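Follow-up to my earlier ticket, as requested here are the two runs.
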Amino acid sequence: MRLLSGLFYAAVAVHAKTVVQNWEITYVTTNRGLNMDAKRGVGVNGKFPLPVVEAELGDTLVLNVRNSLDTPTSLHSHGIFQKSTNYYDGVHMVTECGIAPGSNFTYEIPLEQSGTYWIHGHTSEQNYDGLQTPLIIYDPNDPYPADCEYLFAFEDWSPKTAEEIYPLLTEPNPPFRLFDYPPNALINGLNANLTGPIAFEAGKTYRIRLVSMSSFPLFEFTIDDHELQIIEVDGVLTKPYTTNVVRLASAERVSVLVTAKNSTALNYQYHVTMFGDFLPEIAGIFPSTYNGSVVYNSDSPYYVAESIATGFLDELAIESLDNEPLLPVDHSLYLNATSGFMEDGSTFESFNQITYKSPLVPSLLSALTTGDMAYNPITYGPDTNALVVNLDEVIELLLWSPTNLPHPIHLHGHVFQIVEKGFTNDTTGQYRNRVPEGNAPLKRDTLFIPGEEYAIVRFRANNFGCHIIHCHISSHFMMGLNMLFVVAPDLIQKNVQVPDAVLEQCRLQGIPVSGNAATNNGFNFDAAPNEPFLLDNDPLTDLASDSPTDSP
């Protein structure tokens, strides 16, 4: 496993610095060392895995990017709020136009948060094809010191590219399900079957950072006969919470402290399991468990466990370290995360039956250039499903997953408190679980909602800008499970000065940099993407059922 370097330079005098990464984003044809055919991936500097980015609180991260693809690209620093730098959030046609093919662009990101994050492509689901890597930001004054750190970054690598699967997923009567092409697992960018040992010294404390960069399977991590003490979730410090297993959905991150035993008489194993009870089992392929060694003494025998720990985290029992109480609500919103059909029978995902379609002008530029109309949600296009809120308003979201499909929901620019969880078919409230009275609710930026369940979350809209909320299962995001929050348009107009380099990327691609979603002013939205509400039932199936049939 990757031994992180942060411990060693955190012990010396600390000065804010510039951390520079020079990335040429390229196609790389590879099977990532897996027993499968090679496919075209999206890598950096002609190779995989991408370099892990490490920095300290207060540094500035500079990502110098050369786009050597034949299509636009962009980079999102997942979990970084981008306060006052919303134009570097990396979301194609929301905060920027993307980086044009054959051009250069630089992201300059002040690192005002510490914790465990990741960087990934946010154009055409290029992260599905490998454009992703962990981002670790150390705090020299971290309240949870450790003697050493290890990083486990989990990925799944599928035999088809995002470009290949999208039309197959959305066309009428799809000829396949996504899992007809099952993935293999990668740990720290390498074949998970080759996962290496980690070394423990008796009595020492280890921080293990767990990052899920998965496109849709779940991952679990456990160490035989060792407790895992959770201290960080999605970059937010928590009060210590003891468990024996950590389950991660796509985009979730957790740090745990593990105290080594005082004896070196035994060695142990850690286990990484890729699975998903919402996915079909495939004998010998899925689910799959990968085992590595925890070595105290190379001459010692191994502890023999009766079973491998598994289970959900009780997120309602974990408290944030900052003791922030449950927020009072200003506005409540119901978001039904569900699939539906177009008139031609094609399938899409949606919030509230509105499948997301990008506007013709990036939403941030619309907010900056439309004056008072920036407060009207229609300015951003009917298919962005936009909600405009004032600064510091507290928004409560009821996230509803009525089908058997799960959704790891990610909110850009903020973290939300987890308030309540339950089942969508529970009409009595018997299985309703709510954060205990007086607890400081857990805050995170991504929350996994299993199929046929719901969650209630709250967040304070304290970051003016344009921020999307979306499902982080790659296929669901591609299929439209996304919507837009616009926070404080007046403050965007007063405070945001978009660098000319951002606007130049729009000009290179012929994308307008002002006006509403249709590139116009006022209420002229004729050219804006405007798909009808999704239908609950497949119209092709309905037509077939209405057709006359021969008598037996």
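Run two:
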Amino acid sequence: MAAALGLGVFVLLLLPPPLGAAELSAEPVAPPETSAAVLAPTRRGPAPVTDVAKLCVCDLLVAQCDVNCCCDPDCSAADFSLFTTCSVPVVTGDSHLCSQKAAIYSLDVEANPPERVFKLIDQVNPSIFCIHATNYEQALTFSSPEIPTSENFDQLLKQFGSGAFSAEPERWDMNADDQNLSDANETYRYQYGAPVQTVDAFLRLPSPVVSSWCSDGNPAGFLVNQATKCIRSVSVEKCNDIQAVSMLFYINSSILAVPKSSQMVNISVQSIVVQSLNGMRTLLNNSDVLRLPMILDGLCINVVLRVSYHITYTEAGEIIEAAAAFVLGAINKEALSMEQSFEISFTQVNTTPVPLSGNPGYVVGLPVRAGFRPQGSGIIQNTNKYSQLTIPQSTASQDCLAAQGARAPVLFGYNMISGCKLRITAALKCQPLAQALLDLLKGQSFPEYVASFGNSQAQDVLDWVPITHLYISEQSSCQIPVSLEIEVKWTKYGSLVNPQARIVNVTATITTTTLKQLPSGRERTILITSSVVFTDVSSPAEPGYKAWPTINAKLPFDFFFPFV
């Protein structure tokens, strides 16, 4: 099958499936000042056979308006005002194409009367395998693969023998009349999951596809943090000719600040670490010198073992800085392959990354992440992860008034208890004392939500668990809090092979006691305690077995004739 695709049928571009469709033009236009080599003929996909704006799968009645069918041409504006929803909100064209037109239907319920909203956008196909461009001479037909013979075996082995190969035809039929050039005044920006474009194509993040061998056709998606590992076929004799083991292969192409723009961002070298054959690593002081692979004493040195990209972007979706950190190593003559690892991360300018406590589940010993949620906003957290959810810290003097301000972070999986003593005199008033003790137990800002996972994002409010507050008190005129008990219920989530810790419930219980009026000159000492308990509420795993197959055999009535 792979050979058939490689002999001039169509090109498959491997795209990571984004979480949502992103508006992106079908082809990137090269900047006007680029060289002639960059301005090579653009490979284009086939023209759409049908117009998605005229497709309507919910139009079932002839010459009548179908209820909640927003694409029905028989419906009028008065009919749309009575709709409650759009039964078919999205209509797309050929699902095999990487870039396709999509018709979006929705209802504007705030309008008076409500009206239908129609949009026609360019959509990126979320499928792993999609058609990026086609050879118009062959169309979408499959050609018969070339049969290996003794004469062409070496040629086929050289073309298809590696883990990944190019199926790009020698010539592409171009039709200038079919090119849809966008308006020059239109403003572009990167959207989530859109491929990060470069001068020649896109920023590549090698990854395994079908097998563990590296494929260089995987594009890096905007705001999609990725980490991949794959195997690269190498040999010491040809290490100078293998582009994928050279630093230049990963930094020689400039990134476009925004799609379809002439503004370019060069990839700078952030750091270079050299790793010896025994695994010892050394950080080089001078990272400005480009170190290319070379053969020395039977070893191929300066081969790329690890690449870490770090992209800085603005709130408007513009890339302003790109850096790469390298780990270089050496291979000997016996090595036939090597493992490479790649990472990419994104950080918004003038922001501080929020530290995580696991990915995705909590790691024992890391602080529990917590925060607040203002009206109509996401979760707001303290930049210090050790100050998000805390309890009073015990001191050597055991004096509650002296211990004010000393807090201990709540660490996942660690049951904790702390306490102090408070000396009460007859001169103390009830209400100021109760408020002071409550501030001592809960701190200046007790959070409202706790992250269910160690990597829960602040904008994903549904991934945060609200803290339930309980109060245990007696019936009296003066009540003062004496204890804070925090119970964190968590469960194992995901596969039994690698379960992830997930918090499902958090309860904070305040216990109060009655403060009796003391005679003049008398004192009383009470104990103030705080505790944290983690409870595993995971259901026990139960093995499941498939039912035994039943044999439903029917024999002809004369099967045993003439014996029966």
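The only thing I checked on run two: The longest helix spans residues 430-442. Let me know what else you need.
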